[in-house]
Write a structure and sequence with these properties.
Elements (H helix, E strand, L loop, with lengths): L2 E3 L1 E3 L2 E3 L5 E7 L4 E8 L2 H18 L4 H17 L1 H11 L4 H19 L1 H4 L4 E6 L2 E9 L2 E5 L7 H4 L2 H6 L3 E5 L6 H13 L6 E3 L4 H9 L5 E5 L2 H13 L3 E5 L5 E4 L5 H13 L11 E5 L3 H12 L20 H16 L3 E4 L18 E4 L6 H4 L6 E7 L2 H10 L2 E2 L1 E5 L3 H10 L4 E4 L15 E2 L2 E2 L6 H8 E9 L18
Helix pairs in contact: 2-4, 2-8, 3-4, 3-8, 11-12
Amino acid sequence: MTQTITHWINGAPYEGTPSKRIPVENPATGQVDSELLAASKEDLDYAVSVAREAQKKWKKYSLAKRTAIMFKARELVLERQDELAKSIVNEHGKDYGDAIGEIQRGRETMDFACGINAALKGEYSFDIATGVDIHTVRQPVGVVAGICPFNFPVMVPMWMHPVAIATGNAFILKPASPTPTASLIMAQIYKDAGLPDGVFNVVSGTRDMVTEVLEHPGIDAISFVGSTPVAEIVMEKGTATGKRVQALGGANNHAIVMPDSDLDFAAGHISAAAFGAAGERCMALPVVVAVGGIGPKLAEMVKKHAEKIKVGYGLDEGVNMGPVITAKDKQRITDWITEAEDAGATVVLDGRDLKVDGYPDGFWLGPTILDDVPLECKAYCEEVFGPVLTIVHAENYEEAIELVNSSPFGNGTAIFTNDGGVARRFTLDVDAGMVGVNVPIPTPVAYYSFGGWKASLIGDTHIHGPEGVKFYTRLKAITSRWPSESGTYAATMSFQREE
């Protein structure tokens, strides 16, 4: 028997009038465990109307009351993280430890939101003219929609809704159809924490519903994380209807490994960064640029670490990598590996024929390492989003940095070296938004902001942290004068600046 997954509107599960039912698979078994209701236009209209009414009251809550609710929600996330993690394992496929790690990184944004009162402080200047003062405040934009990817069903939405809600907005979350359940658990957490009904809503659907979100006049801002082609559409259509939009796109992160680096240290971290979450991370490390002839040696060292990875169902003991998300993705990734092999790449470790006992229908791919890959191969020039590490070669640093910067993406990047001068030069030379020095996944903590350059970020606003506060609020400057201060009311007093 399959379960039905509903929406969440106005503080309760909501079925509405679904346009269709979307099957939700367990990637480890290949079986359909649930069916997700896809919202109709009428369902979205209802969610927006509820959110708009709720936001009118919510924005008037004091900062003390808002932060008290956020503190309680954070506590409940801790209490229910096992339930959240298991929903991630069963719908995304990642192993339990990785799922817990995702929740912890998402909770960092809740930590930041618990201190939102400090982030919302304005500025004040006295006597900009005689008896005239000016101050600034930040006020919520209204109703915000979040459109999220499948690969982080807790963390990525948490990069959005805690800051949006804490700053006084109402939020409508559109989760990815393969991984919807965690969002409903989060909705119940907010309700139990005392968040007023209608401030946080979950509405699932197809691409048609996304189009409705982009065009809906009752939605004031959209936060999006996904592929670059879709990010471009979201930006174009959202701004065309007067919305504020932040749109984070894809990535194909490169790391340079210099010959002076500690190769075993680098190999261990590269293996974890390339194959964690089956490579289905926008901050994964799918490409390594090996400098000065170290490519084959580095490939063998990474292989030793990768061979220790146990692939399987994420709740089974000792598993530290799960399946890819769908059978279609497995076939695409397999085809790209074969294409690179046919083009002359060396397959150092081959995960195409992996079998997992007890799960014959799972979407399994083992860690795969390709050395000396031709640059025209899709495994190098496209975002694989799977457990594949591509190694390319460069003679020196100059050639390596040129390779990195020639990528159309600029999300995250890293360098492995023991030379501080080279490391410093790299941090300034590289065209990417997030940079690691001997850190292969340089994801900023939540009190900084997350975002890339070039095709990895459409627009200019990064997500969560200080830039998240700016995105979810509008700045207002207030200039004031009190004629009663002089003891005489002077209604016609002119505003003149002192020389």
